[in-house]
Amino acid sequence: MPAHHDEIRGAAHGTAPTPLSVLDLVTVGAGRTATQALRTSVDIARLAEHRGYHRYWVAEHHSMPGVASSSPAVILAHLAAHTERVRLGSGGVMLPNHAPLVIAEQFGTLEAMAPGRVDLGLGRAPGTDGATAAALRRTDRLNEGADDFPQQLAELTRFLDDDFPDGHRYSRIHAVPGPVQATSPGGVQDPHRPPLWLLGSSGFSARLAGVLGLPFAFAHHFSAQNTIPALDLYRESFQPSAVLDQPYALIGVSALATDDDGTEARRQVLAAALNMVRLRTGRPGLVPTPEEAEAYPFNEMEQDFIRSWNANVIHGSVDEVRTGLDDLHKRTGADELMLTANAHSGEVRLRSYELIADAYGLPRL
């Protein structure tokens, strides 16, 4: 059954120009454990719920010591047990890494746990390096997964809606929990199912989301140069559907605010950028401390990367971050801003979301 519009479109609160949401990478800093990172995720999810953030998504990554979000469905089940209202979802699950039936079962289970507040965001990238993707998919033909994405998406949708046509090889297979339970003797099934979102950092998913009339999430936080072209392509390609009558696009934004004049934010952002340098050069690790980043001997190429990377991270004092978010909204016309706070310290990340909520006068619910 198609998602209702209200499950997709959020409402802006306070003076925010658009609904604000949270993207969590469950980052693990040096000297910290995954257990501590996941406890921070619970704290941030609770804060998001009580401060008027619209949704809270977890992103799938693999083989990265500093990112403990390899199993979004497991994390979302944990968060569902600690929240009551905030929307929870994947930003995203990387569809080529998984059998569509497995995803339908996982998110059908999540929907049963948290009825009416689960989103299923899907990406076609592996969320890791090629060797890890091959291990996940049990094949070395990695291009096959991306090329088959529209077909995989169609199959997943059929499983979620339980509507394979008669004669299809999967017509007698059902994702449970799911709609089949309503058609079983004595069965009752909630009519909701998680709304589908397509995620992207280029034009492919933008166009596909538009053609299918689905909501679209763009990864501005690591592909800023493609943001406006992708959003334009999505809006130009959009065809009204049973899900949406008008386009709805959110963008992921790196944003970090601190209580001071922005000095601490710049220190934390430098540490996160050093982590990206190591990742991009095949040395993934835990997010380093600000002290380690300040002492690191960046070469000229690394310095260029840092400048380019941090130019798209909105960080500093509360006023600087609010101004940066307002300007980004004006430039992109995004329907929703999904904020990700990358820092070594979980406490700094948590405080940043609180400060941004205060800056926009978001309610205390």
Q: What tags apply to this protein structure?
A:
365 residues; 14 helices; alpha/beta; 9 strands; globular
Structure description:
This protein has 365 residues and is α/β, with parallel strands linked by helices. The protein contains 14 helices and nine strands. It has an eight-stranded parallel barrel with strand order 1-2-3-4-5-6-7-9, surrounded by eight helices. α9 (227-237) links the parallel β6 (216-218) and β7. α2 (72-80) packs parallel to α3 (100-113), α10 (263-280) crosses α12 and α13 packs across α14 (346-359). The protein is globular and about 65 Å long.
Structure at a glance:
The chain has 14 helices and 9 strands.
Topology (elements, then pairings):
Blueprint: E1 20-24, H1 34-50, E2 55-58, H2 72-80, E3 87-94, H3 100-113, E4 118-123, H4 130-137, H5 142-147, H6 149-161, H7 180-183, E5 196-200, H8 203-212, E6 216-218, H9 227-237, E7 249-258, H10 263-280, H11 290-295, H12 300-310, E8 314-317, H13 318-332, E9 336-340, H14 346-359
Parallel strand pairs: 1-2, 1-9, 2-3, 3-4, 4-5, 5-6, 6-7, 7-8, 7-9
Helix pairs in contact: 1-14, 2-3, 3-6, 8-9, 10-12, 13-14
Q: How many DSSP helices?
A: 14
Give the averaged pLDDT, no decimals. Answer: 92
How many strand segments?
A: 9
Q: Summarize the main sheet.
A: 8 strands, parallel, barrel
Oligomer: single chain
Give the percentage of residues in beta strands: 5-15%
